[in-house]
Design brief:
It is a single chain. With 221 residues, this protein is mainly beta. Helices cover 14% and strands 43% of the residues. The strands form 2 sheets. It has a 13-stranded antiparallel β-sheet with strand order 3-4-5-6-7-8-9-10-11-12-13-14-15. A two-stranded antiparallel ribbon has the order 1-2. The longest helix has 23 residues. It is elongated and about 70 Å long.
């Protein structure tokens, strides 16, 4: 059985974790002045009949922060300085990011040089990330640059332990990982509709596989 494609989601999820680490740092730097910008949504206008509230047709800013009654940031919407991509984060009472939504782009080496400005825009990829109370990434859902979706679940050390993938060729895969993100088991449905199950050793080598051909003939290797 051929090994299902799984490196793409691991790489993408690592980028998501790094990108949201930057977002978390930005949340700590956001100023209380952002609250004043949000208050501008409601404008009091004096008319002949008295004072009436008017909602502004448009409010523009680079960042917003939502604070609780104690002044703690609990939600934030901002553009990242690195690539200008938007991110929305929800924080717990300790100021830790617990849920985030982002529309990130792939990093480009040497993006500060003059040639980088002439490069075509990178494909933006949406992602949803869920964190534990210590800020560790525990679950992530993303759409990769090639348009395929992926779902990953992580242990307390941030290592992937389970992933669901849908590849460009239409094949679907479920991957289970052991320590150090080593692939230990994989279940896949190939483009021709035939299923396969593979078991791997700690070195990532197939030690047992079960395949069902399109004609429903089974094979154990």
């Amino acid at each position: 059985m051929s090994e299902p494609i799984n490196h793409g989601i691991v790489e993408r999820l690592e980028r998501l974790e790094a990108a949201n680490g930057i977002l978390q740092q930005e949340c700590r730097r956001w100023r209380r002045g952002s609250l004043a910008a949000a208050a501008a949504v409601v404008i009091l206008g004096i008319t002949g009949a008295g004072v009436a509230a008017r909602i502004a047709p448009m409010l523009e800013a680079n960042e917003f922060v939502l604070r609780d009654k104690d002044g703690k940031a609990r939600a934030a919407l901002a553009l990242r300085d690195k690539d200008g991509s938007p991110g929305l984060a929800f924080l717990d009472h300790k100021g830790q990011v617990r849920l985030s939504f982002d529309l990130g782009s792939r990093d480009v080496e040497g993006s500060d040089d003059a040639k980088a400005k002439d490069r075509p825009p990178l494909r933006e990829t949406p992602g949803v990330n869920i964190y534990d109370e210590d800020g560790g990434l525990r679950a992530a859902l993303t759409i990769r640059p090639d348009g395929t979706p992926g779902l990953g679940l992580f242990d307390k050390d941030g290592q992937p332990r389970l992933s669901l993938d849908l590849c460009t060729d239409g094949s679907a895969g479920l991957n289970l990982y052991g320590e150090a993100a080593a692939l230990r088991a994989a279940l896949a449905v190939r483009p021709d509709g035939s299923p396969g199950l593979g078991l791997f050793n700690k070195q990532g080598q197939v030690v047992q596989s079960i395949d069902l051909a399109p004609d429903d003939r089974s094979a154990v290797h």
